[in-house]
Amino acid sequence: MEPAVPSIRRLSQSLINKIAAGEVIERPASVVKELMENAVDASASRIDVAVASGGAEMVRVVDDGCGIAADELPLAVASHATNKLAEADDLFRVATLGFRGEALASIAEISRLTVRSRSAEDQSGAELEVVGGKPSEVVPAGCPVGTALEVRNLFFNTPVRRKFLRTTGTEFGHVSEAFTRIALAAPRVHFTLRHNDREVFELPVSDGWLERIARFFGRELAGDLIWVESAEGPVRISGYVARPSHSRSNNRMQYFFLNGRHIRDRALQHALGEAYRGLLMTGRYPIAFMMLEMPPETVDVNVHPTKLEVRFQDSGRLYSQLLSTLRGKFLTTDLTAHVKPPGEDDPSGGHDQARTTQLRQELVDWAKGEVASWDRPGHAGPEPAARGAFGSGESRRPLELARLDRSWTRPGDATEEQPGGAVEAFSQQPAARPAPALQVHNRYLVVETQQGVTIIDQHALHERILYEQLRARVTSGAIETQNLLAPEPVDLSTAEAAAALQQRELLAQLGIKIEPFGGDTVLVTGYPAMLANVKPVELLRELLDKLLEGSRAPDRGDLLDELLHTIACKAAIKAGDRLTPEEIAALLEQRHLVDDPHHCPHGRPAALVFTREELDRQFKRV
Ligand code: ADP
Ligand code: MG
């Protein structure tokens, strides 16, 4: 018997829409993106977004844009219907966010969608409901000019898709990111975002871009951004990049907007990384908000289902323009972390709030300086508020290492240690003590051993020691938290703040105590005593970066372990730190106490051993 040849059939429109929906609508955040884009395309001046249960239950976007005429409502939700393209050539000069005319049709196919709208010419509005792709009659409805679109029960008729949805928190994180991308690109539009009736963002119309950036990412970052711009022919690049004292462990804080549309582009990200080469540690990524403007016909936006990626006619030129713009700017800018002179106005115009934040910061710095000076009678006066961003300016307090090591070698002593007592005694040993090892290039320690010579990576060894020490303390619940005399406020992004509060317990286990402080600010109220040389703000950001990395929810033990590694890495002395003979001695003393002294927690070797025999052989003595 011949196998039956499957016959070719035309797919039903409903199936076509479902297939299209699979490409465009991946999760609730995709709905938020498409609806918001439509509202922006309709020239709205205010756009209100509300979602329930991360968007899986409900997404509602209300705008005051041009609206849709009653008789056109069925067309708006039909596939391949758009008011944005008229002829084929238009596809190559797209000036709107949407143009394919398939978003509403796709969404309507896999949800219960209600659209209510009124155009400026009409006296009253109209409403249309579509359930699983089946539209009802258009009925009159009272409403203001503009459009309200509500999408309920997303994926109700595509159960497989529904199963792929993550936790409410994760889905909302994506919604928040989609919202951020669109609201960042349109500072002249008033946006709001609510989740389960809680206000998440309220973004009034802002004059400058900086104000909008500050609303999302905090005034601290906004105050440390550098304006860059350049124009080459019709191509204009402008925007803000952060000083190297701000960086992230991933590239998610690199925002590129092309003619008002958020895009991702590997080449541009690469150019950004190149511009910061040598300014950031490996594994750190710069922060940037860049706008690219060019004639629409020089770029193809129709190459990616969600239009996230585009194809530039001359991407090589754009790459070099971005790179040279940034390099040029960096050459003429003092990039070390700067402290704003008192009274200097926040350029974004948020005078009062910026001033309050600054005063708060000054108070905190002052208080910390006071506390530090109680600890060390020899040191009078407060610490400088900010230290150099990297290398040279950094004034690492040399005593910290000694203190750490002390309390670790004899954990029982911790309570006997009066403020400064043991530490001072230790540091007052004659400084003439010879170093027990040779420090080379401020990063390796060369030690003569019985067997031969060992070369130690100072950062890797210290990291390993700290990691073991922290782990032992955390697992036995003995980590010592010091309540901060002046709790430290930290401005975070919404996603970071949510993660911080959600993982409050985990952070407490690590000795970091936080409290909500309104908006996206959290207050660090307690901090591990042994991490005195790492700024709480920096460490918290680092840990939140880790927590937000990947949406998987790993096993709690793994997560804790990962955070311990992060802390150890951050707190350890760095390659490039010059060590005193005492510090070298303290490091070496603890060497054998570590389980696996030959590897740092990342798995890189911490030490290389050359036996005498090997050296003899190499020098052809034997
Ligand atoms: P596209 O945005 O690619 O045109 P959509 O499916 O997203 O396709 O929208 C279809 C059409 O519905 C749009 O072209 C527009 O005419 C109309 N429309 C959708 N949302 C709105 C809105 N918020 N305000 C005014 N018109 C809208
Ligand atoms: Mg659209």
Question: Mean pLDDT, rounded to whole units?
Answer: 80
The major pleated sheet works out as: 9 strands, mixed
Instruction: Calculate the terminal CA-CA distance, rounded to whole Å.
Output: 81 Å
- Rounded to the nearest angstrom, the radius of gyration is 29 Å
Query: Based on helices, strands and strand pairing, what is the structural class?
Result: alpha+beta
Q: Percent range for helical residues?
A: 25-40%
Q: Uncertain runs with pLDDT below 50, 5 residues or more? A: 337-352, 370-432
Strand content: 15-25%
Total helical elements: 20
What is the overall silhouette? elongated
Query: Hetero groups bound?
Result: adenosine-5'-diphosphate, magnesium ion
Let me know the number of strands.
23
Write a brief structural summary:
This protein has 622 residues and is α+β, with helices and mostly antiparallel strands.
Q: What's the SSE blueprint?
A:
Elements: H1 13-24, H2 28-41, E1 46-52, E2 58-63, H3 73-76, H4 103-109, E3 112-118, E4 125-131, E5 134-135, E6 139-141, E7 146-152, H5 159-163, H6 168-185, E8 190-195, E9 198-203, H7 209-217, H8 219-222, E10 225-232, E11 235-242, E12 254-258, E13 261-263, H9 266-275, E14 288-293, E15 299-300, E16 311-312, H10 315-331, H11 351-375, H12 399-409, H13 421-427, E17 438-440, E18 444-448, E19 452-457, H14 458-475, E20 481-491, H15 494-502, H16 504-509, E21 513-516, E22 521-528, H17 536-548, H18 556-571, H19 581-589, E23 607-611, H20 612-618
Parallel strand pairs: 1-8, 12-14
Antiparallel strand pairs: 1-2, 2-7, 3-4, 3-7, 4-5, 4-6, 8-9, 10-11, 11-14, 12-13, 15-16, 17-18, 18-19, 19-23, 20-22, 21-22
Helix pairs in contact: 1-4, 2-6, 9-10, 12-13, 12-19, 14-18, 15-17, 17-18
Magnesium ion binds next to helix 2.
